[in-house]
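Q: What does the assembly look like in three dimensions?
Context provided by user:
Components: three
Sequences:
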Amino acid sequence: MLWNLPFITVVVLTLIGLVTVLLKKNIIKILLGINILNSAANLFLITLGYREGGVAPIFTLAPSELMVLPTPQALVLTSIVIGVATSALVLSFAIVLQKKYGTVDIDKIRRLHG
Amino acid sequence: MTVADFLFTNAPALLVVIPLFAAFICPVAGKISSTIRNLWVMGMMLVTAAVAFILAFRVFVTGPVLYVFGAAAANLAVPLDSGGIPIRIIFTVDAMSAFMDIICAIVGVSVLLYSLSSESRNSGLEGYYTLFFLMIAGVFGMVSTGDLFNFFVFLEILSLASAGMIAYRIDGGLAVEAALKYFILSTLGAIFVLFAIGVYYGQYNALNIAMIAQRMQFTMLDKIALVLLVAALAMKCGAVPLHFWTPDAYSMAPSSVTAFLVVASQASLYGLFRVVFTMYNITMNCVTVGWIIIIFGVLSMVVGVTMAIPQKDIKRLMAYHAVSQTGYMLLGVGVGLAVLGNTTLTSAFGFMAMEGGIFHIFNHAMYKGLLFLTAGAIFYRIGTRDLNRMGGLGHTMKYTMIFFIIGALAIAGIPPFNGFASKLMIYESVYLFNPLLAIIAMVVSILTLASFVKVFHSVFMGPKLPEYADVKEAPLPMLIGMGILAAIVILFGLFPQPVVDILVAPAAHALADQGGYIASVLGGA
Amino acid sequence: MRMSKIVRTAADILYPAILIFGLYIVAHGHLTPGGGFQGGAVIATGGALVIVAYNYKEVTGWLKKNVLTGQEVSGLVGFIGVGLLALAFGQVFFFNYLVGSGSIFGMPVPYGINPGELNTAGIVPLMNFAVGIEVWGGLTVVILYMLSGLEKEGC
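A: Here is the predicted structure of the complete assembly.
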């Protein structure tokens, strides 16, 4: 059970994120939902990289044979960097939309149609 | 080591590095003067295209090319002390990737030429060219990489740059609205891709596509990952039922960007094909997945064209046609996938269907790019995209009209243009698979023709309108940009057979040949 | 909108400390958790702290967009340039041509638990520096541009 706890967290976070993205109308809240989903994916990758009895792959602290493989950590770092860029871009869009439309409610941002 | 050897060896890396380098220098060059910046972007684009052609030449002559970043040698995919696992970032360029590289290079050059004058009236051009080169790097990276996580990274680079480009002309917030819609959807898709990558990594301890393909068991988890990947990539390539971002994004982006967004969506299409053909191939139930892709394709064709007919905005109309044409590619390749396990059927019509679908990718990029560029030229001169407010432009914009006719006839599948060549291949082979599908495809083609006749009539025909009396022909760089694409449309329409033999057939066979792909990365295992 | 004197003084004191901590993370990227992006992000947080404590107009006097954009560009070009140098040496792109060379960052790595030898890992620290400079400039300039967008609104 304890072993599966991170995976259960991943599922819960994914559901929370999906619900937030699909049901919330505020762009900022949608962005938060995306960030939660992103964290879920990151947690998933990190959990896959864990082995019982392994230590963090920090070279100065550990004898090499006990280290876990650092690949998932590297992947997650990359994914976090991409997440930062995503957040910055969506927030910029939100700023522009607030200035042009006077709202960040996606139900009111509907001038494109057809 | 001669220059030719150097280029031959390092072409896959240079393909991504040169656009990135060009993108980062752009702001500096723009600070000095706009002429230097224009020279810089044009020069770098030509160099990139040259590298892409050199790489494609090498691939088509000698087979798949590997490039291992940071290794002791460029083709050392599996180091001796790694236990048979490819550990570094590996670019695997086979015939299919090289095929996509060629598309991206041709469209990139003509779009860049075009935007030198089409965007010259706007401010913030440093950002424009920086994002443009990032898009190019993203497409080249996506189609060249042999590593699934790397694919995700380039997918995200492409999404970020595309979203920035769509929002580039803010247009009272409308463009930002379209970009937001596009970007939230692509980010969700990218997170799905990331989950799928996690599933593969957890099961097979590998990120390399060839390694995953070799170890593929098609368990329950693999099915989930397949669904995630297919959903995300079908959304990114604009297939129905996840097409709703396409008309908004395509119509609000600057026209030059739209022409390149077509290529960007095709890079996702490439990703979809790479996943189903190279990673899963016959371990999965090809008939089911093939039919799913066929149904996506047929839905895209029908819904796209029916939505296109009532449109009043010229670029929105063309965007729905882009959705519809994506359906042809999915149909062709889907039929190829559905019969993949069956050797008799595959050699009877499966390969021909795949060749038709893949050839259509190329043709679509050319004529749809051309059409979007003509729409942009019209917008550049008269400042509206509303079909009801246009008319009589054929008197003044003769060359644009000719290019539009070429593009419109090609998209409708009229000989002797390239759309006909690929559509004929799709009709013939799909008819053998299921006559109904072929008939639907033909009807959609006729509706496409009808729709474009309407556009042609309302834009170019009729008397000269007084408000457009002093409209001039589009500037020369824009005409050259359109001319390159138009020349290819005609050339490939007149001589389809050599193109199919030299470019398309190797690409289709490379896509279907899972064993060859694995062997090219992991050695003859 | 200017914060109270307490906050401003605290920001003044903390900013150099954050800067040094960020640079430490960048410089030790090849030995400890962290690296260019993380260090650069820490430094950018320092910038954000100053922006929050003072108002936008005052801050633009110290944190200049031109300088920060220049940092961003030079960081990115440096990163690519370090990789491209490998091609100039006839190696593969991103090949670690400095490791084990005995020159800068070219010392052999000691095994076992040790305090960490900074002078190792070849081109990895160089890339960390490049990325650190780039992220420092990039993230700060993102914050500044967002603020300038809000500032015109008057909020």
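Follow-up: Residues 35 and 62 of chain C are 26 Å apart (CA to CA).
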